[in-house]
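Attaching the record inline, Q. Sequence:
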Amino acid sequence: MKKILYALLATVSGLVLLFSYRTSHIESATPLAADSSTTTSSTTGSAADSGSDNGAGSGSTADSTGSASTGSSSTGSGAASESTGTGLTDGTYTGASTNTRFGPVQVQITVSDGQITDVQVPDYPSSNSRDRQINQRALPVLMSETTDAQSAEIDMVSGATYTSEGYLQSLQSAIDQASS
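Structure, as predicted:
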């Protein structure tokens, strides 16, 4: 009986150690650009951020603590041209910087022929390795969904709720500028 108990405890301990070991460490803090080779997976925004984004990933629904700040916003570069079906004017537009619980998020879009052709995120939470790890995974998904949807009506990324909320607010600000 003792041997069975010890074997069971050893197995449980081994599984705990195995699943708690972090295998990837992303240290890059460079601004992300949309990449067509990025694999995307549509997720819902019902789960809370994991890791540092909500303090140990409780899996509960996160509250929106991000609020739009007076951040910088610039109007389109180049000459304005007539827009097409989306109602967007060609140029590059930088959305207002949105403060989130873990830092500001700012989105920049490039509109060509009335379509969002490029999305950049010049500012995002990257103060620690966990923030960088979350955003290295979440931002390419958000950027790809933006160019696919051609609007701010996209799904949030599970595990990056705060970043997703800030991204959506800044994206909407940039789209509003392109619509003017």
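The chain has three helices and six strands. The mean pLDDT is 73.

More tomorrow.
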